[in-house]
Amino acid sequence: MLLGEALGLLDPRPGDVAVDCTAGGGGHSAALARAIGPGGHLISIDLDPQSLASTAQHMQGWAGQFVSIRDSFVRVAQHLVQRQLRADVVLADLGFSSGQMHEAGRGFSFQADGPLDMRYDPDGPVTAADLLRSCTEEELADLIRRYGEEPLAPKIARKLVQTRKDQPIQTTAQLVQVVQEAYGSRRARKSRLHPATRTFMALRIAVNDELAALEALMDQVIDGAAKVGEGGWLNSGARVAVISFHSLEDRIVKRAFVRLAEGGLGTRLTKRPITAGADEVAANPRARSAKLRVATVGGPKAMMKVAPAGC
User: Fold this and answer.
1) How far from 209 is each of 37, 138, 206, 224, CA to CA, in Å?
2) Hey, how many other C-beta atoms are within 10 angstroms of the C-beta on 190?
3) Pick from 56, 68, 168: nearest CA to 115
4) I want to staple 77 with a disulfide (CB 3.0 to 4.6 A). Which of 8, 21, 155, 233 is the partner?
């Protein structure tokens, strides 16, 4: 999603060091590889081994230097410094891949029944079912309200707790049924979104600690910008793009890029987020919520330390 717009602003060039922080299905990595050419160096990172396997297939036959890393992007700076590399292009697409979406066993989608997993990393310690079993009603309501921005969060949490007294909630179909019952048939029919959309999103964010990971990534971008020329992981002039799908994610990216610019460490190329056009939304409805922000690293104060984040 928004690949053309992202590549246009990232401007990957032959010989660049490019980092795909979220390899996903491999499409973005392949596009970056084509742009940086056989003299380039591509690093693809993902927690999901299936995503890395898909990316590796896309990279077959590419003559450049390719590194695949199974890890979270919260350690992207560490991986580049260890390899004595500095990135020219950094891309993070925060949406989950279509492969994850369509595989019922991963538990990301309410369209097909499957176990309530929702982990990007299949070896991660906590599943969505674990959260539904262990959280109190108050904790569930806060989680669904905060991460899903769901107005009916207290009612849904109450229904979840009532239901689990009789049987554990372990499948996507069970969760959908509970949420629909909390909504009520009339409200569910009038809802623009499927009633379970926000609850599923909230659980996925919580299971994978997505907002904390994004905060860590943006802190690394700012730190890397402050250390340009001092052994950091970003080259002066590096371009950084983030595609988000949630207002909380977009807010984190916006604030980080504002800090970058106000600290004299870079320039915001998108004062307002770029969104998908009508054709892309028609082809892929998930693109409707995608937002792209891009910034460059380097400026007259690039060697100065940025001030702490404010409110």
Assistant:
1) 35, 19, 5, 23
2) 9
3) 168
4) 233
Residues 6 or more apart from 288 whose CB is under 8 A from it?
276, 281
Per-domain residue ranges for the chain? 3-98+210-297, 104-207
Query: Does 104-207 carry CATH code 3.10.450.50?
Result: no
Reply yes or no on whether the pLDDT at 310 is more than 60.
no
Asked if residue 94 lies in contact with residue 245, where contact means CB atoms within 8 angstroms, the answer is yes
Q: According to CATH, what is the number of the domain 3-98+210-297?
A: 3.40.50.150
Contacts 24+ apart (CB under 8 A), 270-279: 270/9, 270/294, 270/295, 273/244, 274/2, 274/5, 275/2, 276/1, 276/2
Q: How far apart are CA 308 and CA 311, in angstroms?
A: 10
DSSP, res 289: G
Predicted confidence at residue 304, as pLDDT, reads 37
- Report pLDDT digits (tens) over 33-64: 999 999 999 999 999 999 999 999 999 999 99
C-alpha dihedral, 82 to 86 to 88 to 92, nearest 10°:
30
* pLDDT for residue 11 is more than 80: yes
DSSP codes, 178-225: HHHHHH-HHHHHH-SS-TTHHHHHHHHHHHHTHHHHHHHHHHHHHHHH
Neighbours of 311 (CB within 10 A): 3
Task: Write down the pTM of the prediction.
Answer: 0.90
Between CA 60 and CA 306 the distance in angstroms is 41
Cα–Cα dist 136/54, whole Å: 38
**160 to 44, 104, 126, 166, 309: CA distances (angstroms):** 38, 21, 18, 10, 37
